[in-house]
Design a protein that fits this description.
Blueprint (H helix, E strand, L loop, with lengths): L16 H6 L42 H6 L14 H5 L26
InterPro entries: Unkempt-like, Znf-CCCH_AtC3H23-like, Znf_CCCH_sf
Keywords: DNA-binding, Metal-binding, Zinc, Zinc-finger
Organism: Tetradesmus obliquus (Green alga)
């Protein structure tokens, strides 16, 4: 999966909402040393957290039934539905659109809900 990065010369703060919605687990990691993939905001080879960018792929915030049932989708990247939990929870139509039931007691934004 190849994704275009931010426009040339444009730097994105990895803690910003814009980065989280459009580049988190989309852009490939360029670190040449061993590190914890779970805490890295970039994607890695064979990373199950990899997702399609909503900027380049038009898919909704609804889960693909084929992916849920079979773990694969015959439409592949051309499917108009979310293919994994990262695409589902980090979709701009879903991410931080509802208040977290745990409120401020929850880790800030850990589940994709507003605190």
């Amino acid at each position: 999966m190849t994704e275009e990065g931010p426009p040339p010369g444009e730097w994105h703060d990895i803690k910003s909402l814009h980065f989280k919605l459009f580049y988190y687990k989309v852009l490939p990691c360029t670190k040449a040393w061993s590190h914890d993939w779970q805490h890295c905001p970039y994607t890695h080879p064979n990373d199950k957290a990899r997702r399609r960018s909503p900027l380049h792929h038009s898919y909704s915030a609804d889960m693909c039934p084929a992916m849920l049932q079979n773990g694969t989708c015959p439409k592949g990247v051309n499917c108009n539905l979310a293919h994994n939990l990262f695409e589902y929870h980090l979709h701009p139509d879903r991410y931080k659109t509802k208040m977290c039931p745990a409120g401020y007691a929850a880790a800030a934004g850990a589940a994709g809900a507003a605190n």
